[in-house]
Structure to design on (299 residues):
């Protein structure tokens, strides 16, 4: 029994050593990846908190992207030189006014959420990843309720009461977010920063597939965006050299567009499967256009 017992002890020691070595390798790899992510980060100024007066605040917001795969909820405050989000778990995200390239307020009209979105000049670390787009939103109604709503009768008194409450809630949230944006603009201006919130032009929006699913894309004064679904789609129109239309024929029901970057070393943006009826809406945007049939340039 002596030799067998000794062998079992050796196996346990070897297994423990293997687990410890694997854990050390994992931590070292995570450290390398984090250092690689942070290598090209532009150093941001420290937030200067406003202590002499009441700060503009939006409460009970959800942030996207999330910290460590968990839903992140908290409050957003506007201070002297930037915004600070504090989650319910004490996590802090600071967004400096000079680092905001585009600030967008999207009211809830046909969507289930009202949101403010910040497209940054330089990415910041959020958890273990660099992020250039950060969003804060409040859901008007739970997504499951929108599915169940289709099963109820339009003559149901409870249904009519729910619709009225929903309209009131939408109006209340839209006003709260709009007022917050106005106050943030005033705080930034008071402290010598230029910040203005864009609002998407919903009537000029169109459906398309910029990633892997169909979404509703809307222009703002400076951008072309989809902020409701993830991953976000944000194109700065001043970066677009021209827009190339593909598969434009009378026989097809949809076409594609390619937005060519002024910096030809960067990948263009692509939106597929746009309904033909939306072509005129897209051409309202201030860009040069070319059309193609079967990906061959014709004009």
């Amino acid at each position: 029994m002596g030799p067998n017992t000794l062998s079992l002890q050796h196996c346990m020691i070897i297994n423990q050593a293997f687990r410890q070595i694997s854990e050390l390798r994992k931590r070292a790899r995570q450290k390398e990846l984090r250092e690689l992510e942070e290598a090209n980060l532009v150093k941001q100024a420290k937030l200067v908190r406003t202590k002499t007066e009441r700060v503009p605040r939006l409460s009970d917001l959800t942030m996207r992207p999330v910290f460590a795969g968990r839903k992140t909820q908290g409050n957003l405050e506007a201070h002297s030189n930037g915004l600070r989000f504090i989650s319910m778990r004490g996590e802090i995200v600071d967004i400096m006014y000079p680092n905001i390239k585009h600030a967008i307020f999207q009211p809830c009209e046909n969507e289930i959420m009202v949101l403010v979105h910040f497209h940054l000049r330089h990415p910041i670390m959020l958890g273990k990843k660099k992020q250039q787009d950060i969003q804060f939103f409040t859901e008007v109604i739970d997504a499951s309720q929108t599915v169940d709503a289709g099963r109820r009768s339009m003559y149901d008194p409870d249904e009519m009461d729910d619709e009225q409450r929903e309209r009131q809630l939408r109006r209340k949230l839209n006003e709260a977010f709009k007022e917050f944006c106005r106050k943030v603009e005033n705080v930034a201006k008071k402290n010598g920063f230029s910040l203005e919130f864009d609002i998407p032009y919903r009537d000029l929006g169109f459906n398309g597939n910029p990633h892997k699913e169909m979404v509703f894309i809307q222009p703002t004064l400076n951008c072309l965006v989809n902020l409701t679904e993830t991953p976000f789609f944000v194109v700065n129109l001043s970066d677009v050299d021209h827009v190339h239309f593909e598969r434009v024929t009378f026989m097809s029901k949809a076409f594609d567009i390619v937005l060519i970057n002024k910096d030809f070393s960067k990948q263009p943006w692509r939106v597929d499967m746009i309904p033909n009826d939306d072509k005129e809406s897209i051409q309202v945007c201030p860009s040069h256009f070319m059309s193609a049939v079967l990906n061959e340039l014709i004009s």
Q: What stands out?
A: Residues 254 and 276 are 5 Å apart (CA to CA). Confidence is low (pLDDT under 50) at residues 292-299.
